Amino acid sequence: MKTSVYLLSVLVLMVHSLFCRAENWPRWRGPDGNAVSSESPLPQRWGKKENVRWKVRVPGEGFSSPVVWEDRVFLTSAFDGGTRRVVHCLDFPSGRFLWTGEVRHPHPEQTSAMTGHAAPTPATDGRHVVAFFGNAGVVCYDRDGRQLWRHELPEFDSELGLASSPVLGRDRVFLVCDHDGDRFRSFDSFLLALDLKTGKPLWKTDRHKLYRSWSTPILVPTADGGQELVVNGEERLRGYDPETGKELWQVGGMTAWVTPSPVFGRGLIFATSGKDGPTLAVRPGGRGDVTATHVVWQHKRGGPYVCSPVLYGDYLYVHTEQGILSCYEAATGKLQYRERLDGKFIASPVAGDGKVYCTNEDGTTFVVRAGPRFEVLARNALEEYTLASPAISAGRLLLRTERHLYCIGASKD
């Protein structure tokens, strides 16, 4: 009996050690916001009863994506029409709920069917877990569920809800607070930096009363070893100084409503907007309006309204809500293929292990071979309404549907 207990304890420690060594997925769209995992192998085939390591019901409503730090998973939900918002913490190996933190606000912002009151994805650095809850503000917990701080925000006027997710970096929380503009109190959309440890504002940059976007920013390295905070927004892509919030440069060409987040790689920023809008490759840096000097290539049509692109290897993958998947050579913008996947898409694609994963609203994930030739390797159906984008860690995919969180892993891993 003692031997059995000892062996079980050793097995549990080995499993948790595996997850602690895995690549973290700490924010919306992964380690750098580029939605790419370096792990291999990753699952290719699954179903409701095939290669499902665990499945748990997630209480409340929410379309935020899960994030992962070592052996813990964090995601958000809302209750009672958004007056109650929560952060959930789960044990990654088992799917067991560890804790739930709750904040309340009596006047939740207006939402849409594609957002709800828990659309922004939380962010973590392993010690802090930060969530943006619209009118309920920004809240930070430690990994054990103790609330460290909460920062109040003004009440937003947003016809379609809020979806931009917080980004952590340089011991700060960066947050895009774009909205329609309150017709009565008339405060501008703004970009905000908070101290990660205390929640105190470090700077706030007003944008424009009419800025309307749901995009999440990324931190981009500069040639001098610094960083720029890049924000995709109404009509323009902009770069800001993360230390001061000062606008550094801007590039024209975006549409009026912007949801897709930019990605960075191979020295270029890739940004899209729609409906059926542009896709641009832009060099970071410069000062002022650099539209004429820093746009390396662009396609004026075919961009998505909601789905963010993914840069994987030498190629940029862009798919629209109608399922049109386009593959471009990243360096030149040359179109490699344009093919249709079945269904309607709101979730953004992720990639790794030579595969691009595209999940439609019906919960079917198309596994497409990465590279310049179109090949669907698998169609994996969960048959549940799905808007959240997948997360990848420990060789597994985490897929959030309307009611459940699935942990997908090959039968032998």
List keywords for this structure.
5-stranded mixed sheet; 33 strands; 4-stranded antiparallel sheet; 413 residues; mainly beta
What is the averaged pLDDT score?
A: 92
Low-confidence stretches: 5-14
E-strand count: 33
Strand order of the largest sheet: 14-15-16-17-21
Considering DSSP H and I runs of 4 or more, what fraction of the residues is helical? under 10%
Q: Quick one: overall form?
A: globular
> Major β-sheet, in short?
5 strands, mixed
Please report the distance between the alpha carbons of the first and last residues: 28 Å
How big a fraction of the residues is strand? 35-45%
Question: Strand pairing plus helix content: what structural class?
Answer: mainly beta
Supply Rg. 20 Å
Number of helices: 2
Q: Can you give a write-up of this model?
A:
- Helices cover 6% and strands 41% of the residues.
- It has two helices and 33 strands.
- A hairpin with a 2-residue loop joins β27 (350-352) and β28.
Topology:
Blueprint (H helix, E strand, L loop, with lengths): L1 H20 L30 E6 L9 E3 L2 E8 L4 E8 L5 E8 L18 E2 L3 E5 L5 E5 L4 E5 L15 E3 L2 E6 L12 E6 L5 E6 L11 E4 L5 E7 L2 E5 L6 E6 L10 E3 L2 E5 L4 E6 L5 E2 L1 H4 E9 L6 E3 L2 E5 L4 E6 L5 E6 L9 E3 L2 E5 L4 E6 L6 E6 L9 E3 L2 E5 L3 E5 L5
Parallel strand pairs: 17-21
Antiparallel strand pairs: 1-33, 2-3, 3-4, 4-5, 6-7, 7-8, 8-9, 10-11, 11-12, 12-13, 14-15, 15-16, 16-17, 18-19, 19-20, 20-22, 23-24, 24-25, 25-26, 27-28, 28-29, 29-30, 31-32, 32-33
